[in-house]
Write a structure and sequence with these properties.
Elements: E1 3-8, H1 16-29, E2 34-38, H2 46-49, H3 60-64, H4 70-73, E3 75-77, E4 80-86, H5 99-112, E5 115-119, H6 126-132, E6 138-144, H7 147-162, E7 169-175, H8 177-181, H9 188-195, E8 199-204, H10 207-214, H11 225-237, H12 254-258, H13 266-270, H14 275-278, H15 289-297
Parallel strand pairs: 1-5, 1-6, 2-4, 2-5, 6-7, 7-8
Antiparallel strand pairs: 3-4
Helix pairs in contact: 1-11
Bound molecules: adenosine-5'-diphosphate and magnesium ion.
């Protein structure tokens, strides 16, 4: 059974494309057949994140308009045979994509792939609305832990609920221990409470992410904390109970700060992704399987 995950934000620049590209790679390396759809029409970025810029010939709008076959537009990743990317059109607008056609494309992809990740455009305009009508199984909201971002995320949440899609999971990105300690930035837990969303993951602000982007590489190929964070997220998506590091909410020892404990690589093997494992219907009261564990296992890292 395939699962379609939609990644949205509200505010732009919070790390949606960065996170979805790297997550797609983690899942593909874990043995899942993955398609990453870049749905940010006019502002495509996934070709760059995956180092596929030179290979784009056809795009999502070409497929939707019948200018090519779906198979012609799906770009295989040279190093990850299980990963395909469907690029966004760079010179089109959101209105050029018929949501019914997108729905159909996703239906076709479901037949051959285990996981379909959709990288949404920022904002709450037509670009996002198109994708919200395309039939996702799960929604994920990515935010940074500040008032402005949370305010915008609330609007996106309202739109998601209006479309009767499942209540989003939350990923809080670019967390800084020092700023949370100083009360400048919210913790991931506080952000989740403010938005009343189940927490799927927390990712630290990480120089490795910047370096990877400058090199047109994936940060999961660097030994860094964000890589560990993504492996945890993939594990939770598969229903595993993975503790949260809870950045900034407790003092970390010198040793932990400098030698962060590695996530068990075996998690990568244990990932079994299916939304049914975590939630099959839009039940606003449902909790992530890892949420229960989180309150008791928060000190495990
Ligand atoms: N955890 C992180 N640490 C440091 N930089 C990050 C992190 N996540 C994202 N970024 C940076 O933030 C910028 C915006 O990311 P992007 O994925 O393009 O955002 P969006 O798709 O939400 O607009 C990029 O320069 C990216 O490298
Ligand atoms: Mg983006």
């Amino acid at each position: 059974m395939s699962s379609v995950y939609l990644f949205a934000s509200g505010k732009g620049g919070v790390g949606k494309s960065t996170v979805t590209a790297n997550l797609a790679a983690v899942l593909a390396r874990a043995g899942r057949k993955v398609v990453l759809i870049d749905a940010d029409i006019g502002l495509r970025s996934q070709d760059s994140f995956l180092g596929l810029e030179d290979r784009v010939v056809y795009d999502l709008v070409d497929v939707a308009r019948g200018r090519c076959l779906l198979s012609q537009a799906l770009l295989p990743h040279p190093d990850m045979p299980a990963l395909r990317m469907l690029p966004a059109a760079q010179f089109s607008r959101a209105r050029d994509l018929d949501p019914k056609k997108l729905h159909k494309i996703i239906g076709l992809l479901r037949r051959d792939y285990d996981i379909i990740l959709i990288d949404c455009p920022a904002g709450i305009e037509r670009g996002l609305r198109n994708v919200l009508n395309a039939g996702a199984d799960e929604t994920v909201l990515i935010v940074t832990a500040d008032d402005l971002c949370l305010r915008d995320a609330e609007k996106t949440c309202a739109l998601i609920s209006e479309k009767k899609l499942p209540k989003p999971w939350l990923i809080v990105n670019r967390l800084r221990n020092d700023m949370i300690h100083d009360g400048l930035m919210y913790s991931a837990r506080t952000a989740a409470d403010v938005l009343d969303l189940p927490l799927l993951g927390e990712i630290p602000e990480d120089e490795a992410v910047t370096v990877a982007q400058l090199k047109h590489a994936l940060f999961i190929d660097f030994a860094c904390e964000s890589r560990e964070a993504l492996i945890r997220i993939a594990g939770r998506m598969g229903g595993a109970s993975v503790p949260f590091p809870s950045y900034g909410t407790r003092k970390t020892s010198f040793f932990r700060r400098h030698f962060p404990q590695k996530v068990k690589e075996s998690l990568l093997r244990d990932i079994h992704l299916a939304p049914a494992v975590t939630r099959s219907s839009p039940d606003p009261k449902s909790k992530s399987p890892s949420e229960t564990a989180e309150s008791t296992e928060v000190d495990a890292e």
